Amino acid sequence: MATFTWPWQYNFPPFFTIQPNLDTRKKQLEAWCSLVLNYQKSQKNYILDTTEAQNSPLFYNKDINRRLSTDGIQIVLEELRKQGNVEWKDKAGKQCIIMWRTPEEWGNLIYKYITDKGMKNTVCTLYELTHEEDTENQEFYGLEDWLLLRALQCLQSQGKAELMGDEGVKFF
Amino acid sequence: MDRFEWIDFSLQPGESNVISQSGVALYDGPDKTSFNDGLMVLTTHRLIWKDTLNRSRVLAVSLSLVVRIEEQPSGFAKSAKIEVHLQKANSGKAPGPVASSQHDYVRLSFRNSGEVEFYRYFMEQLRERRWEKTVPPADPVSGGGARNRPGIMGIERSIQHKQRDMDMNISQSFKDLRMLMEKAKEMVQLSKTISTKIREKQGDITEDETVKFKSYLLSMGIADPVTRETHGSGDKYFTELARQLAAVLEKPLQECGGIMTLSDVYCRVNRARGMELLSPEDLLNACEMFEFLKLPVRLKTFDSGVMVLQLLSHSEEEVVRQTQALLKDKESLTAEELAQQLGLSVILAKERLLLTEKMSKACRDETVEGLRFYPNYFVTK
Questions:
Q1: Cβ–Cβ pairs < 8 A, chains A and B
Q2: Which pLDDT score is estimated for B146?
Q3: Strand partners, B300
Q4: Is there a single domain that holds both residue A45 and residue A74?
Q5: What's the subunit arrangement here (chain B) (predicted)?
């Protein structure tokens, strides 16, 4: 948290009012999206509860006493969903998964690592990819299983990998 | 006294009673006569004396013979009198109680008083000289005859009569109003001459006074307003009205920054028109003609629904540029603050900010404290 640097918009009061002018709103939402993703990334946090989000520092700047409204939060999340960074966990829109990297991006990252290591055509376990010493310096180290699975499914659909059961994967 | 003649008491055509007073004695000059207790009747044409006891003794003298009258106040054991000076009667005079008299005046002695009123009415009748005006003989049907007829016809007739009277009263009242309007026109004329004089003698009057007076004049305004009476009710009325509005409003519009809300316009125009008030609808209709007539003023409706008149030369780009610069200067502004800065109404200031926002040159911060505008750093940074 201490290492997280807020963007300048965070201290700009109009940032917390959804702008009616469409051009302005576009810029504003861009800023919000990158803020949400960066913040979640710094927190290594994937789940966002919209009912509690209003009190999170992400949407509430105590210093200037500004808070993004629940409607505003919905708009920002919806924008993120369009980009593929958010998936709703329930239909009521109370909880969502925020993927600061989309499964596709994760997949590409893993695939690049495998190619660099010359590990194509070998089989490795999922556990080994995210929890072994070899990958400690990689971004996907400690990636949650469900997201890893999604990333690998992405690669599979591209023909770059094949899942073997629940535990293993083979890259091509 | 020889001017009096015997009459049987009946009024002549066009003659009517004015006032009567009982207990009046007649004097031939200073001398008492046998006519010492009677009813003195003043009509529009004659002075009539009727004996109280003997009803057939009725004397009259035409008011045309009266030269002048004098009041003689009452004293101790002496009643008040009116002295009536008479000129010589015509040769064709009917016989009277006295064949000849050496006096050219008679006195009316008011034993039961009432002389003051009588004297006043007497003077009035002498001034009006009603006996000289010939009156057409009364129509026997619509006149007395009809009034005597009872029944529904009679009632209807009396209602009609009343209505006619009322109509007359009303039209008379409106005549007064028209007079007042004429006077108002004169006032405007007067103020105009004063204003030209002021312009000529600008040096003699302090600037402050000139400004003050000019503001008075501004409120006097339109000398010859376009009205429905002068220009009918169709398109012509609206086109003429539009032309006049454009001419009258051009200067005030320039003074207040090229833009004015329609409600302000309405107040200003109607104050300037004085009596000939405009309805809001007529004003709006006339304003809608501006564009068609290619006049230098335009009606504009903001997205918020606020209607304004603005000069054609009034450019939105300029307004936006100005507002943007102010925003940068002040960091942030509410409509109220901008209104104070520019001396505008809050509504117009808000419209300015909204316009600037629309042009992506400002962004808003909406809180419980109100709406505040900032420079649009989203786009510029």
A1: 47
A2: 45
A3: B308
A4: yes
A5: Component of the endosomal sorting complex required for transport II (ESCRT-II).
